[in-house]
Specification:
Elements (H helix, E strand, L loop, with lengths): L4 H11 L3 H10 L4 H19 L6 E8 L5 E9 L2 H4 L2 H17 L4 H6 L1 E2 L2 E5 H12 L4 E9 L1
Antiparallel strand pairs: 1-2, 2-5, 3-4
Helix pairs in contact: 1-2, 2-3, 3-7, 5-7
Amino acid sequence: MAFDLTMLKKLREETEASIADCRMALEETDGDYQKALEWIKKRAVAKAEKKADREAGQGIVEAYIHGNGKIGVLVQLLCETDFVARTDDFKNLAHDIALQIAAMNPENVEELLKQEFIKDTSVTIEQKIKQVIGKLGENIILKGFARLDI
């Protein structure tokens, strides 16, 4: 099936999925952009579920202090390898989760995972993590967090 390359580029930019996945999504959905978006989201979740049993012994602790200096957050985010822990995608995910905690003040990890992502309310934090798992190819676990405020 032939499709517009600008659509492929737009899909890649919006989802950050691989070019091969974007191409496959457009082919599987006969060039329907919205269906291709859903296809990519489902594929990311499926990839994440396959990796859920892998041990995640590496990662980072992200620290965020809100601009007014009255809210601070520490996030412990784990992955399988130190290589992935050093990637911008992983670091950005940890930072986004810290921002979410600062803004929404969840009581625990389970509540946080169910919250709508503040930067994209069409997905939850859990779904956002699964999207990054699909992109990076490693299991990612939100181990814990601490939020301090004055």
